[in-house]
Amino acid sequence: MSFDPADPSLRRRRPAPLGRREVLRGGFWLSVGLGASPLLAACGGDGGGSAQSGGAPYPLARPDDPVAQPLKDSNPPIEDGLDPESGGVLRILNYDQYMAPGVMKTFGAEHGVEVQVTPYTTYDEMLAKLRAPGESFDLVFPGPSVLSKMVYADLIQPLNKTYVPNLTNVWPEYQDPWYDQGARYTVPYTIYDTGVLYRADRVSSVPDNGYDLMWDEAYAGKIYLLDDQQEAIAMSLLRNGITTDINTSDPALVAQATDSLIELIDKVQVKANINAYSEVPEGTATVHQAWSGDAIAGQYYLPKGEGPEVLAYWRPESAAERVIGNDNIAIPRSAEKPVLAHLLINDLLDDKIGLKNFGWNGYQPPLTTLSAQFLVDQGYIPENLMNAVVEPSDFEEGLTFYEVPPTTEALWRQSWSQFKAGG
Amino acid sequence: MADPAADHRRTTRRLWPALALPGTLWLVALFLVPVYAVMAVAFSGNINIFGEPIPAWNPLDWQFATFSQVVTESVSGPYRAVWVRTAVYTGLALMICAAIGYPVAYYTARLAGKRRGLVLALILAPWWINYITRMLAWVNLLQDDGYVNKALGIVGVAPVSWLAGNPVTVVIALAYGYLPFFILPLFASLDRIDQRLLEASRDLGVGSVRTFLHVTLPLSKLGLVTAFVVTALPMAGDYYTNTIVSSSPNTTMIGNQIELFLLQGPSKNFGAALVLLLSLVLLFFMAYYLVLTQRASREAR
Question: Which residues form the ABC transmembrane type-1 domain (chain B) (predicted)?
Answer without folding.
Answer: 83-291
